[in-house]
Amino acid sequence: MATNTSQSRTARYGEEFKSFLSETWLGYALILPAVILLAAIIFYPTLRGVQMAFLEVSLLQPGQEELVGLENFAEMVNDAVFRTALWQTVLLTALAVSIQYLLGMALALVLKEKLPGMRIFRSLSMVSWVLPIIVMVILFRFMVQNGFGPANIVLDALGLETTYWFGDPEMAFPLIVLMHVWRNVPFYAIALMAAMNSIPETQYEAARLDGAGALQRFRHVTLPQISYVSMIMIVLHVIFTFNNFEIVYLSTGGGPLGNTEVLATYVYKTAFETYALGYAASMGVVMLVLMLVFTTVYVKLEDMD
Amino acid sequence: MATETDAVDGRTESANTVSRFDRWLDEETSPRRALAVYAVLGVFMLFLLLPVVYMVLATFTNRSFLYSSALIPSLSDLTLANYVNVLSTGAFQRYFVNSTIIASATTVLTLTVGTLAGYSLSRFEYPGRDSLLLAFLGTQMLPYVLILIPFFLLMFTLGLINSHLGIIIAHSVIATPLAIWLLKGYFDDIPESLDEAAKMDGCSQLDILVRVVLPLSLPGLAVAGFYTFTISWNDFLLVSVLSQTGATRTLPFGLQLFQSQNQVAWHLVLTAATITMIPVIVLFAAVQQWVVKGLASGGMKGA
Asked: To pair with B61 at 20 to 30 A between CA atoms, which of A6, A125, B119, B173?
């Protein structure tokens, strides 16, 4: 009798252990395809890219590599184009993300109003976020064509100066910022609106009873409760803007006079136009490290709040 | 008789709308506030939509209007010639077919891989699960231009340059982390009691995925599918590196067919751009309610 019980207990444990094993293995098996794909196509190239940063390699003879230690990184210090591109990338990211956030917040505040037609407006506002970057760039380039671009036609009618603004050394950079803003404001707006809508109305009532005005209610009720979504949106867009290649490359190619050159375009040109893979990779590593530091610090700061 | 009833119905309906509108204003907002909201909204819509609307309008006008300094076309300026011209260009047709094949295959591959991985992360406990999730999300931080160099060499070694397969794999990998994240969010929302009930009925884990979890996650699949399709359809950078010839190029390159070094046929370029954006806009219209909702819940929670 006793042996029988202990036997059945062992059997039960055995069964549980087996089912635990099979569950675990099934879990691993299901995630395996994703892991293999990402390991081969993202993690391997990233590690190889980091390794390349310490080598001298040419795209023309990828087989011939020479270990040069930190030489590539030392080269950056004396590279005026790199310094300009770094500064312009930081400036572009800071300007674009802060303007996006402010405008996105403003749009979120109107979109969350419960008025007729709002659902249509919410969807319509997303159009600029959905269309391909190349289409956006073509659209902006068309609008600022000299003579027949609609923006210049309006400027001309107002008696203002007209030119192909992407070719203007002073205006090209602001136009790049404008494109980043135009594209991403709707995404901020919808995300922030959703966060605002999830705040219970009773909290506003309570604040009102305490005599808080509209601005105070926004400051003390709304802002703290959208801070998590705000953080996600800001981190995402800092990364997106900092790493973005297509918007600059397709609109100005970094010109005129290098005034819109950013790190992404400079790395691309260094690799695929001057074939200096090692140097390009080392600049890519600098980009990666900067983003890692930014994300870590930002998330830590947010956690402390 | 019938018309009279219709008219009456129509009147009550519009009266209903008006009274509903009144009630809205009474409850939530004053008319002055509503007016202010619509005014601000109007400015935003002009800023966000006017350029796109104007571009679409311009594609239906003739060349001489487009290159003139007039803003509003007259009726005699309207034409479909640009569309006929662009759509009958052989290379453009090929790019359209390429885009369709690549984006569809990418979507199927990504949703398959993403569903399995998302299900694994949502329903199984095993060592390393959280680090895997973090690693997937971490990929979003990597600068593409850094990955691109070894990636190009890798694809070259594998013989995947100038092939549809190479581009499909590349796009899938870019889209997979986001798809996993989204799908995991949707799977997490399905109560595990349903799994238990299915298990009682003798379903295996995979049966549960196919018969219980997936049917309840259709909005999630739609949103993840939309994101993936759009990432693939809109991509320029990866295709530019992986396609050295026209045989595997996609629509974002179709716009280049109508411009040369120093001359741009704007009427055709804008038309090609409009045709390029139509599929993603239509897809977005189909899934927008879930995208907007997903941004609120599925995409934003977690962590």
From this structure: A125
